[in-house]
Amino acid sequence: MHTAPEKVIANLNSLLRGEISAVETYDQAISHLKDRSINDLIANRDCHRKRVDLISSNIRQHGGTPDQTSGVWGSFTRLVERGASLISDNTVIAALEEGEDRGLAQYRDPGELDPSSIQLIQTVLMPRQLETHERMRLRKLMSDA
Question: Does the reported pTM lie above 0.85?
Fold first, then answer.
């Protein structure tokens, strides 16, 4: 079955928006938690930033234009911007873990893609998503303890 290039580009842009939003959200969380241990948050943000570059490149290879705005995590970013001082550290970490959950779900069901994009997800993007997800899962366990 052949997937239309427009559909592939749309689905890749959906993944891209999630990654852009993840970077924005981690930037906000790092700013919020700046006086605490944030190495794991920095590692996750940087990993998401690399995925933005990979997906953007893949979209261009398909003849598309990568989106420049964030997606589903953007609501948390806006929440942090509006009331950062009112948000507890545990709430920040829980929101990051929830965002990682959504990212994992999106990579598990990315919509119709071409074989090269599926391979990119299976060999690069999903393994990195599993890493960032696990970091936040462990961080949340530590913050809940």
Answer: yes
